[in-house]
Amino acid sequence: MIDFKAPEEITSVIESLERFVEVEIKPLEKKFAKALEDERYLYDENGKYTPEFQEALKQVRLKSAEAGFFTMFGEAELGGNGDEFGPLAVALIHEALTKKYGYNLLISEIFPPGLFSGGLTPVLLGMKPEVREEVLPKIKTGESLLCFGLSEPDAGSDVWSIKTKAVKDGDHWVINGTKQWITNAPYAEYAIIFAITDPELAEKRRGGITAFLVPFDGKTCTCSSTIPYLGHLGSRIGIVSIEDARVHEKYIIGDLHDGFGAALHGVDIGRVVMAANCVGTAQWALDRAIEYAKQRKTFGVTIDNHQAIQMMIAECGMDIYAGRNMLLHCAWKMENQKELPIKEISMIKAFTTEMAFRVLDRCMQIMGGMGLTNEMKIEKVWRWARSMRVPDGTAEIQRRTIARRLLKGDTDFS
Ligand SMILES: Cc1cc2nc3c(=O)[nH]c(=O)nc-3n(C[C@H](O)[C@H](O)[C@H](O)COP(=O)(O)OP(=O)(O)OC[C@H]3O[C@@H](n4cnc5c(N)ncnc54)[C@H](O)[C@@H]3O)c2cc1C
């Protein structure tokens, strides 16, 4: 029998997380209310979070780690509880939090920012034991952040066209290049940097790219600037400049010339997290839009009486229902099937990110002019939903993967 309800062990984790939010995060929300309302107080002149807000985020991570949430989806081999909490738990827990609280900067810090590249990421499994020992304690407790440096000014979707190079010098590698769009770069202690180590192999797209763990030392590896986008005054995304960074060969992640093998491990669960956040946030927005429609009056009646508004509400409902069921089915497949459901993971990434944007956009429309202001809190989340259609493989790249799988004969939808 198929049971679509969340099992008790997951609902009890969700309840504990809600208590954590009330006890640990709500007071921080009050303290930083001005900064959360107005970005002029959230970012400094360089577009970085103010030191006080950075400290608040760190406190959330440290407390979350103490409570066991920060590592709950992490690899068991690294000390996490990933064995207990698989893709379905990841989906249901992220959905529940965003459904209740919407997209929220402080709450999202309960889990490692950039799940597949932060916290107890499977990428750590590819590190040499002595390197793991060096970084693991700081990563596990939320004390330090990692960032994932693959994209460059001339290489986004087409990852094989990166230009960053590493040249061997004794038992070290000397790395030069620029990474762009790197989440957490302004705040991270280490970067996972992809560089060409064998130009011939890389040219043929058969390997020749290696992943290195590189510390931000303030000289040879720095975050040279943040990248504000969609009208924000700052961000957690940055440009990483690497100039003659000398890195010992023990800092290679996985195998030499096979950077994509070890370091892209875990990208799939990151897509489940993103999809679940989109599904939860869409529900949060619809709840608010319905509440608004029942109160706002035009032409003598509340606007929920107008068929045009009802159509938008119905379309949001259909979108959410489709996205949620795709997500849960895909997570179920990941948990119960031997083979990774590649096309389904691409489908949930593309569908739910686009769906969340459609839903948020309709909810804003239902709220009229008020939807465009920060007062309803919808506009901020609408910007967040818009941005999700680009990272971790754009919606077009996901369609490319889906089409390739279908054309190869993977037409099973059960
Ligand atoms: C919020 C955010 C966070 C990010 N975080 C990180 C991070 O932590 N680490 C990191 O390495 N990168 C990160 N990125 C970069 C992200 O991975 C790239 O932006 C993404 O891969 C797209 O690359 P691009 O922006 O260069 O667009 P391009 O690759 O130049 O694509 C431009 C357009 O062409 C389309 N396109 C490209 N190729 C094809 C094709 N074959 N078929 C059809 N359409 C195609 C794309 O879909 C897009 O619409 C982040 C980006 C954003 C916006």
Describe this structure in words.
The chain is α+β, with helices and mostly antiparallel strands and 414 residues long. It folds into three domains: 8-115, no CATH class; 146-258, Butyryl-CoA Dehydrogenase, subunit A, domain 2; 267-407, Butyryl-CoA Dehydrogenase, subunit A, domain 3 (Up-down Bundle). It is 48% helix and 14% strand. It contains 14 helices and ten strands. A four-stranded mixed β-sheet has the order 1-4-5-8. α10 (307-336) packs antiparallel against α11 (342-366). The chain starts with 7 loop residues before the first helix and ends in a 7-residue tail after the last helix. The mean pLDDT is 95. The site of flavin-adenine dinucleotide (FAD) has 19 residues, from β1, β3 and α14.
Summarize this, please?
The chain is of the alpha+beta class and 414 residues long. It contains 14 helices and ten strands.
List keywords for this structure.
single chain, 414 residues, alpha+beta, Butyryl-CoA Dehydrogenase, subunit A, domain 2, Butyryl-CoA Dehydrogenase, subunit A, domain 3, 4-stranded antiparallel β-sheet, 14 helices, binds flavin-adenine dinucleotide
